[in-house]
Specification:
alpha/beta; Rossmann fold; about 15% strand; six-stranded mixed beta sheet
Length: about 140
């Protein structure tokens, strides 16, 4: 299944010591590319690797998994359009900018599974009619 991914899911996958590692691994076993992430969310995934000097390796791993960096707006639209789209989603949803980016990408790809471990983001995605997979105390759940 194609999917839109929140950064926590990918961070958990890349870091075996992360408390979301097992849940992330479980999710990724079921996914089939394309796997979409907003560039802002990818940047969140690369912070730890920037400190460690392993961005190239992390990028390679994510590319091998089939992760595609994609803006909310069409690729040929300028950065003004992307900024406005993010601002509108943030204003309407009251989510922080990174979560607004993930939600916007989910709205762009409503056929894809929306995977987020943040409960507030997952709830906003459900309200928008997206199919959400998230981590609950009892394990992975889908709406």
């Amino acid at each position: 299944m194609s999917a839109v991914l929140d950064s926590a899911v990918v961070i958990g996958l890349l870091d075996p010591d992360d408390n979301q590692h097992e849940a992330s691994y479980s999710v990724f076993r079921e996914l089939v590319p394309p796997l979409y992430m907003h560039p802002i969310n990818l940047a969140e995934c690369f912070v730890r690797h920037s400190h460690a000097g392993t961005i190239s390796e992390a990028r390679r791993d994510l590319m091998e998994l089939g992760i595609i960096p994609e803006p909310i707006t069409h690729r040929n639209q300028d950065s003004w359009g992307e900024a406005i789209a993010i601002a509108e989603i943030r204003a309407e949803s009251d989510l922080k900018i990174p979560d607004a980016c993930t939600l916007g990408l989910g709205l762009k790809h409503p056929e894809a599974k929306f995977i987020a471990f943040d409960m507030r983001l997952a709830a906003k995605a459900r309200e928008a009619g997206l199919t959400v997979i998230t981590q609950q105390p009892e394990g992975l759940t889908a709406n």
